[in-house]
Amino acid sequence: AQSVAQPEDQVNVAEGNPLTVKCTYSVSGNPYLFWYVQYPNRGLQFLLKYITGDNLVKGSYGFEAEFNKSQTSFHLKKPSALVSDSALYFCAVRATSGNTPLVFGKGTRLSVIA
Amino acid sequence: GAVVSQHPSWVICKSGTSVKIECRSLDFQATTMFWYRQFPKKSLMLMATSNEGSKATYEQGVEKDKFLINHASLTLSTLTVTSAHPEDSSFYICSASRTDFMNTEAFFGQGTRLTVV
User: Fold this and answer.
1) How far is CA B61 from CA A31, B16, B20, B65, B95, in A?
2) Helix, strand, or coil here: A66?
3) Cβ of A51: how many Cβ atoms within 10 Å?
4) Which of A4, A72, A83, B8 is most buried as measured by Cβ atoms within 10 A of its Cβ?
């Protein structure tokens, strides 16, 4: 079975500082990993994905994530946080290619303080 | 990226009535769509997989007679909450992936906030 763990319910960071939102996963075989962001009363917006290739993945709005197979992690990072980055972030995994549902972590609320 | 449109964005209904939520893929065909439910400050819970031209597959614990899913075309899936009760109040989100690309991300609708009074 697939699973995703986001160990932090809340992450607070000062504007301009680097941010990290943690994610670890469990899956049989090669994982397909995703990060999404959700603003209040909105659907999920895709940020980035890892399928294969370079372990460092760059995505939307200056976000990036590093796939670490030995640690089964896929932490989301941004060098300099903005107040507008404050939102709910979800890590997700899929074990197979094709049209199967994503398995989500519980989400991490990021608060960037001016 | 692809666009998935969900309608309505919010709805208030009386207890005992039914509510229909539409999920459309605007610029691609989706043979499969997924319906999720999100409780306040919680993650997304997969409710069912909607398959074009066939019956939906429901996750364990989801009442198929209460949450009717119809996927009549390659661009439209509907979720009908029948005989709604206050405990059905929630945020419902649909998603779809492009079937012409492998390993692609899922695209999500804007979500529907359902309040049953």
Assistant:
1) 27, 21, 21, 12, 20
2) strand
3) 17
4) A4
Coil, strand, or helix at residue B86?
helix
The structure tokens listed for A74 are 């896929």
For residue A103, give the H/E element and its range.
Answer: strand A103-104
**Nearest one of B113, B106, B112 to B25, comparing CA atoms:** B106
pLDDT digits (tens, 9 = 90+) for B51-104: 888 899 999 999 999 999 999 898 999 999 999 999 999 999 999 877 665 557
Under DSSP, the state recorded for B105 is P
Q: Pull the structure tokens for residue A31.
A: 């994982």
Could you report the per-residue pLDDT of A29-68, keeping only the tens digit for each? 888 999 999 998 888 999 999 988 899 999 999 999 999 9
Q: Is any Cβ of chain A less than 8 angstroms from the Cβ of B108?
A: yes
- The partner residues of A90 in beta bridges, in order of sequence, read A36
Res B110: pLDDT: 93
DSSP B14-51: -TT--EEEEEEESSS--SEEEEEEE-TT--EEEEEEEE
Q: Which of B83, B88, B87 is nearest to B112 (CA)?
A: B88
Closest-CA distance of chain B to residue A114, Å: 23
Q: Which of B46, B103, B109 sits opposite A43 (nearest CB)?
A: B109
Cβ of B103 within 8 Å of Cβ of A32? The answer is: yes
Residues of chain B with C-beta less than 8 angstroms from the C-beta of A99:
31-32, 97, 99
